[in-house]
Amino acid sequence: MSQPAKTSPRASAVSDAPETPAGTKAAAQRLKMRRELAAAAMELFANKGYEATTVDEIASVAGVARRTFFRHFRSKEEAIFPDHDDTLTRAEAVLDVAPAHEHPLDTVCRGIKEVMKMYAASPAVSVERYRLTREVPALREREIASVARYERLFTRYLLAHFDETDHHDGNDDPLLAEVAASAVVTAHNHVLRRWLRAGGQGDVEAQLDHAFSIVRKTFGSGIGAGRTLSTAPAPEPSPMPASVRTQGEVLVAVARTDAPLDEVMRTIEEALRKK
Fold it and tell me: Using CA atoms, how far apart are residues 106 and 110, in angstroms rounded to an integer?
């Protein structure tokens, strides 16, 4: 299962231009080359070790020149993550076309599923990459940097739905937006690691949906609590300070303990006049 080919913002100087057959073909060729370089890098890292492998060797195994390598990657540790730029673009596209009625937290959960799709498309490669990142600190740091890009994207999206400068008692939306974005990414990474440790086996999408349901239950009702949203229910009317009912020739009044006395008396007087 191949990933849809899109030109990443870093690689394209005309990212806003309409897609053409030639542009689509070029993007597909670019992604193919990146994946071939990544496969060569992973093979050499596994056989020779990360430190002993050079960029020249990676390029040679992939059958390209050194300069071709650097047209696609800035360093050898970046080479084993060929799809993150394109996946980030797809995740951002999910956010950009989200329906207006959808809760922003649900949109973010759908967006990060693009990351899981990237890993699930090639389980064997993903499992081997996971093994390498556990063994090589430089690769681990690169992976952490990639995850941070997704978290920043989702945090910006959630914050965009609220006024970050609107700080007052009862409005915790800016805080909840940042915490919720981190929670979505953390839930995704927890499920991903568990799936990778199991050798890429199991229904990872069902596991992810379960993790997201926990995040939604924890944060979904909190975001927006400090203001009125279009999807929020209208506030319930305050209960009457007192009520009166008739039992034969007797009026029975029931009042809240915090009800003002003059309102209670006015309610009783009105009931007596009607009687």
Answer: 6
Whether residue 201 has pLDDT greater than 50: yes
Per-residue confidence (pLDDT) for residue 248, from 0 to 100: 60
**pLDDT (tens digit per residue) in 37-62:** 988 998 898 888 888 999 999 999 99
With CA atoms as reference, report the closest residue to 161 among 213, 230, 214, 92.
230
What's the N-to-C CA distance of the chain in angstroms?
79
Q: Six-digit token pair at 196?
A: 């990778």
Residue with tokens 């430190």: 51
Residue 125 dihedral angles phi and psi, to the nearest 5°: -65, -40
209 with 265: CB under 8 angstroms? no
**Are 121 and 101 within 8 A, CB to CB?**
no
List, in order, residues 6 or more apart from 150 with CB less than 8 Å away. 88, 91, 112, 115, 185
Q: What is the mean pLDDT of residues 247-272?
A: 64
